[in-house]
Every structure is written in C-alpha cells, then in structure tokens.
C-alpha cells in the first residue's frame, strides 16, 4: 500500500511571521494524524524558521522546498543550492512546476538536471508534469505528459525511482478553481504509472506515489483521493489556510 502524501505548495505567499503562524496552526490541527505523510513547502525565506518550529514540535511534518538550482555552489546570483536546502532539513523539493516552466521558461533539460541534483543530495523530487488546456482540447494531453516524463526522468536510475514522487498537474486546473474530474485525473495518473512501469518495472512503479494537483479543495479532495492511482495531492491555494489544508489531509486518510 502506498502512504498518501499531501504537500502544501505555498508559492510566493507568507512572510516569515505569517509562515510561523500558519505552521503553528497546522501543528495544532494535524496533531495525531496518521496514515498520511504531510509536507509544507514554504518560500525560501521562511524555510529556516519553519524548520526550527517543526523540529521543536517533533511532529512528523516534512519540509519541502519549491525549487533549487542544480549546482552545489558557485557564481549563480540569486539561486539556492541542494546542500543549502539539505542543511535546513529539507527532504522534498518541487521540480518542474508549471509556473516555473511557463513564467520563468524552464525547459525539460533544466528540469531533468534539477531532478538529478535533488536525488544526488539525498532528497526526494516531487516532479510536476501536466498539459495546457489547448493540448488537452487537441487530444494531446497523454503525449505531452509522456514526453515530459521521458525527458525529465532521463538520468534517473531504477534504484532511485522508488523515492520519487510525480505530481500530475493539468495547467488549466491550477489556481483556476477548475478541477479535473476524479475520472480524468485517475485516467492520467494510471497512464503515468504505466509509463513508470515501462521505465522502471511494475514493482517499483507500484510503490511510487503519483499525486494530483490543481484546485484541490476540502470539498473535492475525498473524491479525488478515493481513486486507486491518486496517492495524494499537491495543494496550492488551499494550503494557505490551516483549516482547509487540514481538511484535505483528513480526506486523504
Ligand atoms: P492550486 O495550485 O491548488 O492553487 O490550484 C496547485 C499547484 O500549483 O501545485
């Protein structure tokens, strides 16, 4: 059985002080939660403070980052390296989010290098893939997702794959309030697992978590999480309110 993972992607929200308040509230609401892995991915500026709070609480909440630069150190002004994140207690890193691909122009080559860098540092990538609305309407969603998987996982070895998380995030569903139907999301997640099986073998693919992301809210989370190939959620907007995020965690368990 795969343990569901619910990860909150805070994006460019929450000052340090606001982040501390949100985590305190989450720790209170999620106290005693079992049968799910929970992670928060604050902005870089709040990682240190949130890390301290989480360690002091002893709660099993994982710390994630939203991005990194795939070099250990160097003259890369404004970037953050894998060892810097690792040293703060970060265990998960979101890679290839569509906002980085679409707004900041990240291509599959850079995304693949980031996946490699996260694994090399002993952390877990949450690799985001998903199609644009026009690609879905033209019947190209599966082709797009397959191509992203192939390119972004190019250097991943079979022995490393089990630690990876894939998040299917149709771009048209992110922050729009439009969710994929549970059936559509299940169809794509099952397709993704099939591609992972072809690449890494059935057994490893069966152990890998494939999340859904895109307007997951307390009122649609149960239906989505009930699907056999949806192993959790990457939650944006609804992760910024402690009650909503906690309700989504409850829906997954
Ligand atoms: P959303 O974002 O939940 O606000 O749609 C999801 C994501 O971007 O990971």
Question: What do these coordinates show?
Answer:
This protein is α/β, with parallel strands linked by helices and 253 residues long. The protein has a single domain, classed as Aldolase class I (TIM Barrel, Alpha-Beta Barrel). The chain has an eight-stranded parallel beta barrel with strand order 1-2-3-4-5-6-7-8, surrounded by six helices. The longest helix is centred in the C-terminal third of the chain and has 19 residues. It starts with a strand and ends with a helix. Bound molecules: 2-phosphoglycolic acid (PGA). The site of 2-phosphoglycolic acid (PGA) has 13 residues, from strand 8.
Q: What portion of the residues fall into strands of 2 or more residues?
A: 15-25%
Average pLDDT: 97
Helix/strand/pairing class, anyone?
alpha/beta
Order of helices and strands: EHEHEHEHHEHHHEHHEHEH
What is the rounded Rg? 17 Å
* CATH superfamily placement: Aldolase class I
Shape: globular
Tally of structural domains: 1
Per CATH, the class reads Alpha Beta
Could you describe the largest sheet, including whether it forms a barrel? 8 strands, parallel, barrel
CATH architecture: Alpha-Beta Barrel
- Our count of helices gives 12
Q: What do we call the CATH topology? A: TIM Barrel
User: What is the terminal-to-terminal distance?
Assistant: 13 Å
Oligomer: single chain
Bound molecules: 2-phosphoglycolic acid
